[in-house]
Amino acid sequence: MVMTISIIYFIYILLKIYISFMQAGFVLKAKDQKAVLMLPSKFYKAGKYSAKKEKIVILETIVEYILFIFWIGFGLQWLDEVIQVKNIILKSIIYIDIFLAINYIVGLPFDIYQKFVLDEKFGFNNSTISLFIKDNLKGALLFLIFGSLIIGAISYIILNFENWWIWGFLFVFTLIIFINAIYPTIIAPMFNKFTPLKDEELKKDIDGLLKRSGFKSNGVYVVDASKRDSRLNAYFGGLGKSKRVVLFDTLLEKLSKDELLAVLGHELGHFANKDILKNIFMMGVMIFALFYIFANLPNELFDELHLSKEPYTIEALFLLLSPVFTFFFMPLINFVSRKNEYGADRHGANLTSRSSLRNALLKLVDENSHFPLSHPLYIFFYYSHPPIIDRLKALGFEEDSLSAKEALKESCAAKEIEDEDRRGD
Asked: Which residue in 17, 33, 98, 351 is a FRET match for 41, CA 20 to 30 A apart?
């Protein structure tokens, strides 16, 4: 059984490396060709960044495999022997906390390199070492408190319920929905500062957009995302009465009013089309399948690993092997997600205008320096959004008419006029 799982994991690792290798080669070749959707200098720069990022992913994947061999070979058994605690629930909490801590420490150098070397070199990183440390300490503390409680609760369910995987799924699924509900008002403010939008004219336009879509929120907020990086984004966070509109301060700085409204119109399209409910359902199906699979792992596997079948060993194998399952399941979720994006684009264009949404998408590509071309295999496995060029074509724009230079000129001119109007007021 261990041999079978090891072969499957090896295939998973090889496939990940192959996809990254193909993507890096594709981008390196494409960056030297005619620029698409971006100015030539930024197109070339974005290509270099994307290729370098994939090289890091390849190295990270190799380390992931080494870590898998460590845990399967003797790490899980070693951890079981080291933790001499009789209470199973308490031992489960300590066991999984240490398991995750080791995985986190091994992966930390990649996060540091990504942010403070690669992102710094290409001008994306605005964060500092002290802020990075604070963010990680806050995250670790939150997990130590609430994550441990969750581990303890799941361990209790495993010990006390015959069909524990059903109750475990219901507990975790309910918890995910609850966290999504409280995230914008309780969790996110622990890491960023949220302030109500001060631009009354823009706020009025946004409120009008929300009313036309039947979307009720408890406010429009600006988040100080620029203290970490320069990328642009906006989202609707929360569920029920906690829903709020969140705008990155970088988005307000770079996009004109019409472009910003088009972006929000796109997001409202997800609400109107019930895409959020669809995503919750699909994630629920995936989590349900995961709980069923790991509840029915054969005793033979535990015997070969020299492990007793306890809550903490089941949970550790769940955390260790579930990435394999999600890797092969996510293309289905991503396929549906890409379809949903086209519908959201149509909604955003109808609420505002096609040209505003086009300019906004071009600006997002340009400012975020996201390379607009990818290998088909990479898109299949990893893209939750269609390539921007496909989205623009679906909106009715031909490739030859998608002039980044002209659109950016038009966008910047509109932004300058708006800024002058605000200063005049």
From this structure: 17
Summarize pLDDT for 27-53 with one digit per residue, the tens: 999 999 988 888 888 899 999 999 999
d(CA 410, CA 359): 8
**Residue corresponding to tokens 């997600």:** 337
C-alpha to C-alpha distance for 320 and 331, rounded to whole angstroms: 20
Please classify residue 309 by burial: count the beta carbons closer than 10 Å to its beta carbon, then call 0-12 exposed, 13-18 middle and 19+ buried.
Answer: middle
**CA gap 233, 210 in Å, rounded:** 18
| Interval 211-222: pLDDT, tens | 888 888 778 888
| Residue 335 Cα distances to 13, 31, 112, angstroms | 22, 26, 31
Contact 259, 362 (CB under 8 A): no
Q: CA-CA distance, 107 to 102, in Å (whole number)? A: 9
**DSSP string covering 25-84, please?**
HHHHHHTTS---SS-HHHHHHHHHHHHHHHHHHHHHHHHHHHHHHHIIIIIHHHHHHH--
Length of the chain: 425
pTM: 0.84
H/E run at residue 15: helix 2-30
The DSSP-derived string for 76-143 is: HHHHHHH---S-HHHHHHHHHHHHHHHHHHHHHHHHHHIIIIIHHHTT-B---HHHHHHHHHHHHHHI
> According to the model, what pLDDT value does residue 241 have?
67
Q: Which of 317, 309, 401, 326 is nearest to 358 (CA)?
A: 401
Helix (H, G, I), strand (E, B) or coil at 383: coil
Task: Tell me the two tokens of residue 17.
Answer: 């490396």
